[in-house]
Amino acid sequence: MEIDYYVLCFGRTDFTRFTVDSILERAGFTPRITLINNGWIPGIIPDALHGYWAAFVDDYLRQKKVARVINLPFPPFMGTLNAFSQTPFLTDSPFYFITDNDCLPPREAEGQPFDAYCCSIMRDHPSFYKIGLRLYRKISLAYAEQFGFTACDRKTMEALSYLDDDRFVPDHSDLPDLFDAMGQPRIVYEKDDRILLMNCDTTFSLVRKPVLINKGNRLCKASFARCETLHIGYFEPFYFNEKEPRSTEELVLYHRIRALTLPEFHQNYVQREKKYLENREALRAARRDIG
């Protein structure tokens, strides 16, 4: 079976690559991936930085790792979700996945490929139009390693005092998830303990056709209890692609544009950029000392 994936993107080329590669590696069905590029376009983004994104897109289209790319006009905003209502599906599957471009699916779910597992639960419960993969709000490095994410190695994370970031904890024996963060009771669905009931956002979710996700209905009322996604955006302040300086420049510009176009999160993105640049200098200093 083929199944559609819609990946919401704005810059962060390397993180998009990690997301796409993890889907291709772990899916049991054949993914048909659509990248929705939410405003990272020429005329807004400097040519050199846009070229880094464009080269990735061209390469993945050529290799058929990505089926298509939809470019939306600047500025980026939540209206990107409405792209689903403008875009015909590529497959006949009864379901499709949506995700941000910084989320990894698990290697498996109860011994099955994650997509087969999620689709089987969705088939069993036709009253649900959208079920999200469970998301932890604080993670440990050991937890991230279970997803095969090694782009930020332990040595670098420890050198940059990653535990000062409140999204990380030393071990993963008792991680707080979205329920804890939102102060909601963790309710197990009475008909199936594989489902937890709560409102959650669009991060890595399975959607039932013909429902089209938009700004108004992006929240769903259920999560998979034992199928989780890793939000690798948590690693932004600690990620440096030493082979490609444009990757660092991309992340700086990403934070600056987000601070301008999402005023409600302005201070958050200003602080994230500041931390990223501080970490960049700290890492350079540490490596000079080692050298």
Fold and architecture overview:
There is one protein chain. The protein is α/β, with parallel strands linked by helices and 291 residues long. It has two domains: 2-150 and 165-232, Spore Coat Polysaccharide Biosynthesis Protein SpsA, Chain A (Alpha-Beta Complex), CATH 3.90.550.10; 237-290. It is built from eight helices and ten strands. Strands 1, 2, 3, 4, 5, 6, 7, 8, 9 and 10 form a ten-stranded mixed beta sheet that branches. Helix 7 packs antiparallel against helix 8 (266-290). The longest helix has 25 residues, at 266-290. It is globular, with a radius of gyration of 19 Å.
Features of the shown structure:
8 helices, 2 domains, alpha/beta, 291 residues, ten-stranded mixed β-sheet, globular, 34% helix, single chain, Spore Coat Polysaccharide Biosynthesis Protein SpsA, Chain A
Strand-and-helix sequence, N→C? EHEHEEEHEHHHEEEEHH
Mean residue pLDDT:
90
Number of strands: 10
How many domains make up the 3D coordinates?
2
Give the SSE layout:
Layout: E1 2-9, H1 13-26, E2 30-38, H2 47-62, E3 68-72, E4 95-100, E5 103-104, H3 114-124, E6 130-135, H4 141-146, H5 154-159, H6 178-182, E7 187-188, E8 195-200, E9 205-208, E10 220-231, H7 245-261, H8 266-290
Parallel strand pairs: 1-2, 1-4, 2-3, 6-10
Antiparallel strand pairs: 4-9, 5-10, 6-9, 7-8, 8-10
Helix pairs in contact: 7-8
Task: Describe the structure concisely for a colleague.
The protein is an alpha/beta fold and 291 residues long.
